[in-house]
Amino acid sequence: MSILGVNIRELIPPEAIKEIELESLKGRTIAIDAYNALYQFLAAIRQPDGTPLIDNKGRVTSHLSGIFYRTINLIEAGIKPIYVFDGLPPSLKEKELEKRRKVKEEAAKKYQVAIAEEKYEEARKYAQISTRLNDEMVKEAIKLLDAMGLPTVQAPAEGEAQAAYMAKKGDVWSSGSQDYDSILFGSPRVVRNLTVSGKRKLPKKDVYIDIKPEVIESNVIYEKLGINREKLIIIGIMLGTDYNPDGIKGVGIKTALKIVKSYEKTEEILKSLPQTQVDYYEIFNYFMNPEVTDNYTIQWKEPSVEKIKEILVEEHDFNEARVENAIERLQKSFKENVKSQTKGLDFWFK
DNA sequence: CCTGGCAA
DNA sequence: TTGCCAGGG
């Protein structure tokens, strides 16, 4: 989860956020931050005591369950998801990643304690915090998506940056993530809460609320706030990003907005920031020009029943009848929503 | 997170 | 038909 999200959400004018129905995204291609999605499945798909789904060899399978059923739901709704996977994180992110490692290690300890004390709600909470995505999980997810016939994209660095690049180019309609980073990376829009069943548990209480998909339009943010992307990036830097987790002391959204609006040139704003160990100019440049690639193809294939069953049923002990049922839904919606649009010159469709 | 069985 | 919720792996 990005710290950027926490603060910048308050800044986004309500006019820039549109609550929608999933069906209104019919025909849209969306570049989804795969890490963001997998991480959420891994954190959420757990028993009340925090135990994730596992196969008979003890390997975690929560992420596979999540991405399998979610993706089929999206395709059924006529949405064409393209999962974008992270490459190597930029060195700028090291401090934040170290911070996250520590938080997760602490949570893992607290999880053990909570389990020993039979405090299961607490255990679940710490299990979620300590969630980690490893290379094996990523590999398996890519293998599954490939078997399902979906294109995947390997980003050279940040998935959010790559997704933003693809949206900016027009290869996809939008980026998809729970975070707002792709906006700073230049995406024209980001879709959040990309899901069918709209119930979500609130952090503390046993209360469930309806969550609807929402589209955030970048240009509306800029119009309403009277700023441009450069200035939004600098606001992000002042509030704290993955590349400078601490932000700038004493600066909140109101002050940040006031500061950027009081200058004409971005250069001047950057110069006005307090001199610290952090190279704000470097961070700014990274958001403006992150490492991205054109080395990807957006092309769908017929879903492979055998491969899907091999991965889920044979390898990971998913229930065969359930998987078969889901595959049928996939094949049917693939024909209706994907294949029908790939004829002739539109083979490389968007 | 998501599905599917069951009660109302 | 809808809503709930236990259980998925």
TrEMBL record:
Broad class of enzyme this protein falls into: hydrolase
Keyword Secreted annotated: no
Pfam families: XPG_I (PF00867), XPG_N (PF00752)
XPG N-terminal domain sequence ranges: 4-107
Alphabetical UniProt keywords: DNA damage, DNA repair, DNA replication, Endonuclease, Exonuclease, Hydrolase, Magnesium, Metal-binding, Nuclease
Database matches in SUPFAM superfamilies: 5' to 3' exonuclease, C-terminal subdomain, PIN domain-like
Cofactor binding notes: Binds 2 magnesium ions per subunit. They probably participate in the reaction catalyzed by the enzyme. May bind an additional third magnesium ion after substrate binding.
GO molecular function: 5'-3' exonuclease activity; 5'-flap endonuclease activity; DNA binding; magnesium ion binding
InterPro entries, per database record: 5-3_exonuclease_C_sf (IPR036279), Flap_endonuc (IPR023426), Flap_endonuc_arc (IPR019973), HhH2 (IPR008918), PIN-like_dom_sf (IPR029060), XPG-I_dom (IPR006086), XPG/Rad2 (IPR006084), XPG_CS (IPR019974)
Record: residues binding Mg(2+) 2: D179, D181, D242
Domain XPG-I: 146-227
Obligatory cofactor(s): Mg(2+)
Highest taxon, organism lineage: Archaea
Alphabetized Gene3D superfamilies for the sequence: 5' to 3' exonuclease, C-terminal subdomain (1.10.150.20), 5'-nuclease (3.40.50.1010)
Binding site for Mg(2+) 1: D33, D86, E158, E160
EC number: 3.1.-.-
Subunit comment: Interacts with PCNA. PCNA stimulates the nuclease activity without altering cleavage specificity.
Protein function: Structure-specific nuclease with 5'-flap endonuclease and 5'-3' exonuclease activities involved in DNA replication and repair. During DNA replication, cleaves the 5'-overhanging flap structure that is generated by displacement synthesis when DNA polymerase encounters the 5'-end of a downstream Okazaki fragment. Binds the unpaired 3'-DNA end and kinks the DNA to facilitate 5' cleavage specificity. Cleaves one nucleotide into the double-stranded DNA from the junction in flap DNA, leaving a nick for ligation. Also involved in the base excision repair (BER) pathway.
PANTHER family per the UniProt record, alphabetical: FLAP ENDONUCLEASE 1, FLAP ENDONUCLEASE FAMILY MEMBER
The name this protein goes by in its record: Flap endonuclease 1
